[in-house]
Amino acid sequence: MKNSLVLPAAALAALILTGPAAAQQDEKPLDVLLDLVATGTARDNQQERERMQRFEQNQADQERLLREARDEKAAEERRSDRLETTFEANELLITEVTAQLNARLGSLRELFGVLQQVAGDARAQFENSFTNIEYPDRAQFLTDLAAKMGSSSQLASIEEIERLWFELQREATEQGKVKRIRNFRVITADGQESYEDVVRIGTFNIVAAGRYLSHNPDTNSLSELQRQPSEGRFTGSTSDLLAAAPGSGFVRFGLDPTSGVILDSLVQSPNLQERINQGGIVGYVIISLGLLGLLLALERLITLTIAGQKVKAQLKRETVSDDNALGRVLQVYHSNRQADTETLELKLGEAILKETPALQRGILFIKVISVVAPLLGLLGTVTGMINTFQAITLFGTGDPKTMAGGISQALVTTVLGLTVAIPMVLLHTIVSGRSRTITQILQEQTAGIVAEQSEKSQ
Q1: N or C end of the chain: which has fewer CB within 10 A?
Q2: Is pLDDT of 422 > 60?
Q3: pTM of the entire structure?
């Protein structure tokens, strides 16, 4: 209908636009317009009839599709009824068969449950065991057996039950063996691969020459510990064990009965150097003072021991020698024999005073070190506790590692201070005693000389 209105309107517009010029060319414009309208009306009617025919045809097709869909729905409903009937019958059959199975299994069901639990536990134990590097295929068998026993529709065969028993018995037997495995792949501490002989000690340890090895259950491989025990007697025992011949007797070996737990703790414990480093600057100062005091004390001990021996030797000799303190004091006596008693006493006292600084040199410094060392240890303790409280303020108490540094410094410096102070006190006592002994001999001899001189003068 829109097309029928457009065409006459267009013709009319063309007629109006042409105006007088068109009227002059065509003497009957209304006839032309009438023909155009008639032609457009006929064409519109034809298109309308064609559309109606297509609509009637499509309506017939839609009615046919609707009948087919209804027929298919009815067929599916009948099929659903049949399947529902079959499902109910199958449920009754399954219930009946399950009851028969339970009645026939009886106590075997408990047995199969135990087998499933044992297979699962054994798989977890075997995967973490050192023996798994020699028998890697048993893990898959135990996994399949546990999965099979978990299904109510499958039962374990006699062969599978016997193999499970065999694997358990073999694991128990291997626990008591020391076995050498030749040319096994080992990952070294620097990430390199090497093929070397290893020795498995039951299910407790596995070692190579001079090294303890660890077992990675995920890859079933051996790798060298990133850090070996600090005590050489443990790593040395691994070499002895590897070098021992079969039947050669007993070999001393550092065994870890926990299969690596104690070894990990031993490896993680800091050695002497690391403990010293934990003390920080205060710890280094204490150690430096301790070494200085030790060297000074050793020098004083050697010097005073030699001086004491020379003094004792001088006591036994009649001749006077100037290589010792007593000889030098006696030389003063011999040089002033004609002096009166008071003058001689003063001269001998002066000689003893000259010998005293050499005998007491450095002893006071040793005493100072014995006093200062624990004070420095206390200083390190206070500093470490300050660091600990600062860590607690910043990070809280959730992670102990954040406080470990301050606590280590607090404890290590205290230990270092006491370690230095105690020997220094003992050394100071010994050195001071040696010095006093020599001084006492000098004073005794001087007193005797003065007394003898006094008797002569009287």
Answers
A1: C
A2: yes
A3: 0.54
